[in-house]
Fold this protein.
Amino acid sequence: MGKSEGRGRKEAMQRWFLPLLASVSIIAGSGALTGGIVSAYSSGAITVREIADFEKLMKDIEFDMNEMQATIVFEETGPALDYATRLLESFGLVENFFIARGSADAVGWSREYKGLATGIAAYIRAGQFDEAYRVSLEFSEACEVCHDVYRPL
Ligand code: HEC
C-alpha cells in the first residue's frame, strides 16, 4: 500500500468524478470488453433481496476490492481482471437491490461504481497498472458516500 501514502481522503473525494469521465471514454473505446456483462445486469434478472445476502455481498466487495488492489500492485493481469469483473458484477447486484427499493441516489452511486470497475479493467487489459491503481484508490475511498446515507439498512 506504499503507493497510497500521502493521498488524503478529501483529495480523493474531490477527484472522485474525474476517473469516471476517463472510464466513460474507455468504455466508449472498448465496448467489447464490458458490453455483455453490463447488458446482462441491466436486464434486472439478478437481484439481491434479502438483507443477509446484501451484507454478504458487501463483505465480498470489500474482499475483492482489497485483492484487486494487491494484484494490481503486483501487476497480475489475470487475477486483477477477475476481481475487477467480479466487482462490476457485484455493483450490478447492488444497483438492482436499490432499484427495487426505489433509492435513486444509491442506484446512481452503484452505476458510478460499475463505471469505475469497468475503467479499472480496461487499464489492466492495457497494461496501465499505475492508472489502474490510481482509479482503484478512488474506488476504495468513496464507499462512504453511500454508507453515510444507507448504512445500516
Ligand atoms: C450504493 C450504496 C453502497 C456503496 C456504493 C457501498 N456500499 Fe457497502 N454497504 C451499503 C449498505 C446499505 C450497507 C449496510 C448493510 C446493512 O445494514 O445490512 C453496507 C455495508 C457494508 C459492509 C458491512 C457488511 C456487514 O457485514 O454488515 C461492508 C464491509 C461494506 N459495505 C463494504 C463496502 C465497500 C468496500 C464499498 C466500496 C468499494 C462499499 N461498501 C460501497 C451500501 C453501499
Residues 51, 54-55, 58-59, 61-62, 65, 94, 106, 109-110, 113, 139-140, 143, 146-147, 150-153 surround heme C (CB under 6 Å). The helical segments are 9-14, 18-29, 31-42, 51-73, 77-101, 104-125, 129-141, 143-150. The CA atoms of residues 19 and 56 lie 28 Å apart.
